[in-house]
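hey
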């Protein structure tokens, strides 16, 4: 029995990567794979299907978390910035502002990355947006390909470090929970829990 669970976990991990290229939405692929392997694990005697009844309470607990409610709003704002011409117009305006300086377009790209980073919160979305907007403009302006790609990549990774990014929001919530759990284990009162603003 102890060898069945790790084997199922590895097969499940591989199945996700085999199913993702078929073009189904990622959320449905992950959920469908999990449900399929829950059934396989049940028939193999390694999983109790009654554990799935805890999912609604877990989802309600996540939806009642005030901090995590900000994540869909950040994602929505990032999609708005990508789908509309706001980011392109912002880059064009800033490149006109810094255009007379050496490296003005790269400075504009980094500033645009700093503005896009908290709204998208994901490195991939920021790099994709900056790559579509700023990379052709920098290459047309005579920038070396390696320098232009480096500026886009470095500006895109600002999404993980500039608050209030999605990753920092999730990390702050986990740190708050870990701090409260550590206080309980030490026998202290939890009323002095961490405040997200302080984190």
């Amino acid at each position: 029995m102890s060898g069945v669970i790790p084997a199922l976990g590895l097969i499940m991990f591989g199945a996700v990567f085999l199913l993702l290229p078929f073009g189904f939405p990622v959320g449905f692929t992950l959920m469908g794979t999990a449900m399929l392997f829950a059934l396989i694990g049940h028939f193999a005697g390694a999983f109790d299907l009654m554990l799935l009844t805890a999912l609604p309470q877990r989802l309600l607990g996540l939806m009642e978390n005030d901090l995590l409610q900000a994540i869909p709003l950040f994602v929505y704002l990032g999609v708005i910035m990508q789908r509309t011409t706001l980011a392109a117009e912002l880059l064009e305006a800033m490149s006109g502002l810094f255009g007379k300086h050496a490296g003005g377009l790269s400075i504009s790209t980094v500033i645009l990355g700093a503005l896009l980073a908290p709204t998208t919160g994901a490195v991939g979305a920021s790099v994709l947006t900056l790559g579509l907007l700023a990379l052709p403009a920098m290459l047309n302006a005579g920038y070396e390909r390696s320098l232009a790609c480096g500026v886009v990549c470095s500006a895109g990774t600002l999404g993980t470090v500039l608050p209030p990014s999605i990753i920092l929001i999730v990390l702050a919530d986990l740190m708050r929970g870990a701090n409260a759990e550590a206080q309980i284990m030490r026998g202290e009162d939890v009323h002095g829990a961490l405040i997200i603003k302080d984190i």
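The chain has two domains: 4-55, 65-199. Residues 4-55 form one domain.
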